[in-house]
Automatic annotation (TrEMBL):
One of its GO terms (molecular function) is ATP-dependent diacylglycerol kinase activity. It catalyses: a 1,2-diacyl-sn-glycerol + ATP = a 1,2-diacyl-sn-glycero-3-phosphate + ADP + H(+). SUPFAM superfamilies: NAD kinase/diacylglycerol kinase-like. Keywords: ATP-binding, Kinase, Nucleotide-binding, Plant defense, Stress response, Transferase. PROSITE patterns: DAGK. The keyword Secreted does not apply. Phosphorylates the second messenger diacylglycerol (DAG) to generate phosphatidic acid (PA), another important signaling molecule. PA is required for plant development and responses to abiotic stress and pathogen attack. May be involved in the accumulation of PA during cold stress. Monomer. This is Diacylglycerol kinase. Belongs to the eukaryotic diacylglycerol kinase family. It comes from the Eukaryota. It comes from Prunus persica (Peach). Residues 453-488 are annotated as: Disordered.
Length: 504
């Protein structure tokens, strides 16, 4: 069969047009090597009008999501310049960003308008779990830039609470070129939001006997940007005490939920071959939840694990306020200090109290209001209220600063976690006190899609159109249905042997 020359030309031209169109799309994101690599070989400096609309730096935890992280790294490097795509297993983000911003400043001082515009438009993509995303946020926060680059998060972990809170979903969007391009297009369209960060200070008495460190170094949440022991010369240091400091973006929790998380992470370290994808990870998490007694604590555990048996809670409601004690209900076994409306696989344990309520108690949760929400749970059965429309945990308080004081009790340790990273925390054995204090630190910019669940106090209905005018409004019913579509949150997943029809 003979094809007419005009038709053949049209087909070839169509392919070329498609190819050019794809290359034109990627130009929106590519950054020339000389902007990122100091003393790189000289290039022709592009004209200022040629500045990409959405220049990006991409950080990928190649060990996250089984093989997904590695596959994603290959795809991004094939689509963009390799100098703007970084494997966090090879180089830490603080070193990368410090080097890049130093080079940008040098180029700006030399009058390079193109580099100046790149810095103004720069956005960051980070792919990994919540710990990885929090690490990047912390590094950017520590740079204290006049305008920090906003960050988009690719969900590659087990919980993915941080990306879910800002509309990026809970499941990995795919590692093939088309899926990656689609994600990049969403990054280009995304809106900036500010998000609070929280400083955590932990102090405990230096032990008289035993190891120097009360917590083994590998037990600490290593992925957080600043968590480590304070030196003796630091102003935060207290003689005779170990002082640790760190930060978080989503939540700090302690008690039974953190115990489940700790057991999961321990199992993953011992048998990494069993944790190859999100589905198997979540199934394993559910099994561990049941085995740890989160659903069926024994009578011997029931009172000793109640938090008020070994801790006192002090709060400061406003900046410059005074400390006051808050009574912890006697049945509470887990406390969550929550910054974002996404915990344990995507639930909002705080719910949505009315903005019109003037009798003082609670407001809706905002990610930039300088307040953190504190919620309690009796057990996983209590947590199942989150599956219901308008469901929420026991609201304890909203505060600008929080201080937990741990004293000698019936148990010698508890469990804590920050943004998904758990550790086993020793409790006092004598008269000493272990203190954990949480305070507002600063803010950084994050990218949010149109499906963002988080709300700003400056614009409560943006970027999504969710309303919050009524106490635990009907919008919660819609959100709960969406949660159920993804399945129950891992920490509160219903045991398979339980008939849900029997629940009251």
């Amino acid at each position: 069969m003979v094809i007419g020359s005009h038709l053949l030309g049209s087909i070839v031209g169509g392919k070329m047009a498609h190819s050019n169109s794809g290359e034109d799309f990627l130009k929106n994101f590519k950054i020339p090597k000389y902007v990122l690599v100091p003393k790189s070989e000289s290039e022709n400096v592009p004209n200022v009008p040629d500045v990409p609309q959405c220049p990006v730096l991409v950080f990928i935890n190649s060990r996250s999501g089984g093989q997904l992280g590695g596959d994603l790294l290959v795809t991004y490097r094939s689509l963009l310049n390799e100098t703007q795509v970084f494997d966090l297993g090879e180089e830490t983000p603080d070193k990368v960003l410090s080097r890049i911003y130093a080079n940008l400043e040098k180029l700006k001082q030399n009058g390079d308008e193109f580099a100046t515009k790149i810095q103004e438009k720069l956005r960051i993509i980070v792919a990994g779990g919540d710990g990885t995303a929090g690490w990047l946020l912390g590094v950017v926060s520590d740079l204290k830039l006049s305008h920090s680059p906003p960050i988009a998060t690719v969900p590659l972990g087990t919980g993915n609470n941080l990306p879910f809170a800002f509309g990026w979903g809970k499941k990995n969007p795919g590692t093939d070129p088309q899926s990656v391009k689609s994600f990049m297009n969403e990054v280009k369209k995304a809106k900036e939001m500010k998000i609070d960060s929280w400083h955590l200070l932990m102090r405990m008495k230096t032990p008289k006997d035993g190891p120097l460190d009360p917590i083994a170094p590998l037990e600490l949440p290593h992925s957080l940007h600043a968590f480590g022991r304070v030196s003796d010369t630091n102003e935060m240091s207290v003689e005779g005490c170990h002082t640790f400091r760190g930060g978080f973006w989503n939540y700090f929790s302690m008690g039974m939920d953190a115990q489940v998380s700790y057991a999961f992470h321990t199992e993953r370290k011992l048998h990494p071959e069993k944790f190859k994808n999100q589905f198997s990870n979540q199934s394993t998490y559910a099994k561990i939840t049941r085995s740890q007694g989160w659903f069926s604590s024994s009578l011997s555990q029931s009172s000793s694990r109640n938090i008020n048996q070994f801790a006192k809670l002090m709060i400061m409601k406003n900046h410059g306020g005074h400390w006051e004690e808050l009574q912890i209900p006697s049945s509470i076994k887990s406390i969550v200090c929550l910054n974002l409306p996404s915990f344990s696989g995507g639930f909002n344990p705080w719910g949505m109290p009315s903005r019109r309520r003037h009798n003082g108690e609670f407001t809706p949760p905002y990610v930039d209001d300088g307040l953190i929400e504190v919620v309690g749970f009796r057990d996983a059965w209590h947590g199942l209220v989150l599956l219901a429309p308008k469901g929420h945990g026991t609201r304890l308080t909203q505060a600008h600063r929080i201080r937990f004081l741990f004293h000698k009790g019936a148990i010698d340790h508890t469990y804590m976690r920050i943004d998904g990273e758990p550790w086993k925390q020793p409790l006092p054995v004598d008269d000493e006190t272990v203190m954990v204090e949480i305070s507002h630190l600063r803010q950084v910019n994050i990218l949010a899609t149109h499906g963002c669940r988080s709300k700003s106090i400056n614009n409560p209905v943006s970027p999504s159109s969710h309303g919050a005018d009524e106490e635990d409004s009907d919008e919660e019913a819609h959100e709960s249905a969406e949660y159920r579509k993804f399945g129950a949150a891992d920490t509160f997943k219903l045991p398979e042997e339980i008939d849900i029809s029997q629940l009251s």
